[in-house]
Write a structure and sequence with these properties.
By secondary structure, the protein is α/β, with parallel strands linked by helices. It is built from 16 helices and eleven strands. The chain has a nine-stranded mixed β-sheet with strand order 1-2-6-5-4-3-7-8-9, sandwiched between helices. Helix 11 links the parallel strand 7 and strand 8. Helix 1 packs across helix 16, helix 6 crosses helix 16 (339-351) and helix 7 (128-143) runs parallel beside helix 13. The radius of gyration is 21 Å and the shape is globular.
């Protein structure tokens, strides 16, 4: 995307203080964040903003550039890429749900976010049997070519992510916090590995702390990214059951592993099966149900974009880099971009596969 447009998406998100519902209302009305940054109160109210929301945004406008530069520094340090809804790399399946996140913050692979994926979820306090089942299913399905998505939580989520990485497969972890805050802390190393070999993503502003209400919101993205959801082990009232309900609302397949009666951690799975979820006892049962969908929705990973289609600002930045490694300070002194603009432009070029960051230096590929 055009670098200045990407900057405007971040500015608007900051102006809204991360209110994604209002963000989506505005963008559905007019998908130009720059327009809303300078729009009249009447335009905001006409798009569905409340008077209180408008007043709060007006107050935040006074500190917007300061907050923007701080956020840019955080995103650059964490190697985070911004993925707005209009971006062609935005996961196509997320666009199908009723309330897609207007802006995704992503660490890691962007291209494979649209590959055929299955969400595997379950209890944070998983039994040894539950974790074993999660690993068995995850390894088999990953080897079969499915991407695996979960929520980075303890228990089943962690088992799924680790098993996928162990097989060399692709895994995506959807976070309920800001992209820069790993929760739970026990998964900091796991999150780093996912960022290097898969994808970490969040819809929340950098610095957003964990809060109970954010986890169900996160779960709609977990299910929305995928062709279906497999519940391995879950209590009757649990986040996994919320994910399964959201999957049904999104017209996704729901799978569940049966458990012995009166086993508390299996009550949720058995309830789903009584409600019509697909019973699976082995990984091939999932593949038998999703096989035709995987074939029809498989996507090729695009080759790096040509610099011929870049806007002039980014083309000029590439030319300034030359053939050798350069430091950000060198680019800043040689170009017309300010610090924040340069950071976003470099992130854009890296997301397109045109430059790499190696030992603090940037180099053209």
């Amino acid at each position: 995307m055009h670098a200045t447009t990407t900057c405007d998406w971040l500015r608007l998100h900051l102006l809204l203080a991360g209110d994604n519902r209002l963000f989506l209302k505005l963008i559905k009305k007019r998908a130009e964040p720059g327009f809303w940054l300078g729009a009249s109160a009447r335009a905001w109210l006409g798009a569905g903003a409340g008077a209180d929301q408008l007043r709060a945004a007006s107050q935040r406008m006074m500190h917007l550039e300061r907050d923007y530069e701080r956020s840019c520094e955080t995103l650059q340090a964490q190697d985070v890429q911004l993925l707005p809804m209009p971006d062609p790399r935005y996961p196509s399946r997320l666009l199908e749900i009723a309330d897609p996140p207007p802006l995704l913050y992503v660490r890691g692979d962007l291209a494979r976010l649209s590959m055929p994926m299955l969400a595997i979820v379950g209890s944070r306090k998983a039994s040894l049997t539950g974790e074993h089942l999660a690993r068995v299913f995850a390894k088999h399905l990953s080897k079969a070519g499915l991407g695996l998505c979960s929520g980075l939580a303890l228990g089943i989520d962690g088992a799924v992510h680790n098993a996928s990485l162990d097989t060399g497969g692709y895994t995506a972890a959807v976070m309920a916090t800001g992209i820069d805050l790993i929760y739970p802390r026990q998964h900091r190393m796991l999150a780093q590995t996912i960022a290097e070999r898969g994808s970490l993503l969040s819809e929340n502003l950098p610095g957003t702390a964990p809060a109970a209400a954010r986890f169900p919101q996160r779960n709609r993205i977990v299910s929305g990214l995928c062709l279906g959801v497999l519940v391995v082990e879950a209590a009757l009232r649990s986040g996994s059951m919320i994910t399964a309900r959201l999957a049904l609302e999104q017209n996704r397949e729901v799978f569940a592993i049966p458990h012995a009666p009166q086993y508390p951690q299996g009550e949720g799975c058995n309830h789903l099966l009584r409600q019509g979820a697909c019973l699976v006892a082995e990984p091939d049962h999932v593949l038998a149900e999703l096989g035709h969908m995987v074939e029809s929705q498989a996507v090729a990973i695009d080759s790096p974009a040509s610099d011929a289609v870049l806007d002039p600002e980014l083309q000029m930045l590439l030319q300034q880099m030359g053939d050798g490694p350069v430091l950000p300070d060198q680019l800043l002194s040689a170009g017309r971009l300010d610090t924040a603009g340069l950071q976003l432009a470099l992130t854009e070029l890296r997301s397109r596969g045109l430059i790499a960051l190696r030992g603090g230096y940037y180099q053209r590929l």
